[in-house]
Specification:
The structure is a single chain. Helices cover 50% and strands 13% of the residues. It has 408 residues and is α+β, with helices and mostly antiparallel strands. A hairpin with a 2-residue loop joins strand 7 and strand 8. The two termini are 45 Å apart. InterPro entries: PepSY-ass_TM. This is PepSY-associated TM helix domain-containing protein. It comes from Paraburkholderia phytofirmans. Keywords: Membrane, Transmembrane, Transmembrane helix.
């Protein structure tokens, strides 16, 4: 049995090592995405003009009026003091061609005092330019920058499958790390004085044992983040009912009707303020987005600058039909069924933000550890592979020498 487990661990590890090495390093970086992005690109984050800031809704109106080719799809409702207000945008349809206007950007940074666009970029584009570096790394982390093909997000599926293999392999690795009850101390030891291959082996085995629980959490949440709808939610629903929402249950969306008009962002924010009071939320609406393909709005409730949710289970979100203003669903952290709360906790756990700053430091360290475990695993495999090849060569040489001796 152990021989089969060793073989499985070897091939699971070899198959996923490169993916996990990339995911580990990029994860360690994007734990600090906002801070690093701001340090690299101060002109994109710091407002040029001092003075009273306009509301996010007013800034969005000005941006769309100045450039009719685009529509604002996401915006914070207020800018952080001294900072730009960053919006996501998409092209409108050109009535002359019935195709989207050509835009080479999907994110803009707006001076909150004047409405002037300070910067533009294509978030997530493959580029090592300073302006694009952190969004490129962020997207690389969960998609490997692989494209959509036939309507399928190949990168998200690949990384989700890697996460599933990683989960199984982590269990196998733990079983292999404790070959006997008497030898359990060796599984935690680092033979620092031995150096070379011995230290590499201990770093891989013992290092993995010490942080095994954290590795399992990161592996599980990576599957949940990448394959929530097709894999995780169906499994969770076998054990606990999940509250429908328009993102994961499109059947609750109303099909657009002829003559439908889209309610203004201002109206949706009014509805959100009323709903927030009814839910007794402690924070006001902090951001709004419009998903044209769903014909729906989403509103997040958070303090200015806390769009990620820096502590606990994250921010509340509610969704409205864009034409009727009907409330379509709500995700309130800590409320709902056991399945709802399990789903809610996935991103805060994966990002470390559930524990605030300390959690982000921890998850960044785990990311580096994942890269190190992947690298040491490959080194161990290569050394053993070379040893097996040398053994086979020596056996062949001995056999050939025996044949020559027999002929003579």
């Amino acid at each position: 049995m152990r021989r089969q487990l060793v073989r499985l661990h070897r091939w699971f590890g070899v198959a996923t090592a490169l993916f996990l090495f990339v995911a580990g390093l990029t994860g360690a970086i994007i734990a600090w995405d906002h801070e690093l992005d701001a340090a690299l690109n101060p002109s994109f984050f710091k407002a040029r003009t001092a003075g009273p800031a306009l509301s996010g809704l007013e800034l969005a109106r000005r941006v769309e009026a100045a450039d009719p080719r685009l529509q604002v799809t996401y915006l914070p409702l207020a800018a952080e003091p001294g900072h730009t207000l960053q919006m996501m945008v998409l092209p409108r349809t050109d009535p002359a061609t019935q195709k989207p206007y050509p835009l080479d950007f999907n994110q803009i940074a707006v001076d909150p005092a004047t409405g002037e666009i300070q910067g533009r970029r294509e978030w997530g584009v493959v580029s090592l330019a300073r302006l694009n570096l952190i969004p490129f790394i962020y997207k690389l982390h969960y998609t490997l920058q692989l494209p959509f093909t036939g309507g399928v997000d190949i990168g998200t599926w690949v990384m989700g499958i890697v996460g599933i293999i990683w989960l199984f392999d982590s269990v196998i690795a733990l079983l292999l790390s404790f070959p006997s009850v008497k030898a359990w101390r060796k599984s935690f030891a680092f033979r620092l004085g031995r150096g070379g291959y011995t230290f590499t082996f201990d770093l891989h085995r013992s290092g993995g044992v010490w942080i095994w629980g954290l590795l399992m959490i990161v592996a599980l949440t990576s599957v949940s983040m990448n394959l929530s709808a097709p894999v995780v939610r169906p499994i969770v629903s076998l054990f606990s009912k999940l509250t429908p929402d328009p993102i994961n249950n499109p059947e609750i969306l109303r099909a657009p009707q002829p003559g439908d008009t889209v309610l203004s962002r201002e109206r949706i924010v009014q509805l959100a303020e009323q709903a927030g009071r009814a839910q007794k939320l402690s924070v006001a609406p902090g951001g709004i987005y419009y998903a044209e393909f769903m014909h729906a709005y989403g509103v997040g409730f958070y303090a200015t600058g806390n769009d990620h949710g820096d502590l606990g289970l994250g921010n509340p979100w509610m969704y409205w039909d864009a034409a009727t203003g009907k409330l379509l669903g709500a995700q309130i952290p800590g409320k709902g069924t056991a399945g709802d709360i399990f789903v809610q906790v996935q991103f805060p756990l994966h990002s470390g933000r559930i524990l605030g700053l300390g959690g982000r430091i921890l998850i960044s360290a785990v990311g580096i550890a994942v890269a190190a475990l992947s690298a040491t695993g490959l080194l161990i495999w290569l050394k053993k592979l070379n040893a097996r090849r040398r053994s086979a060569q020596n056996a062949n040489l001995a056999r050939d020498a025996g044949r020559s001796a027999a002929r003579s």
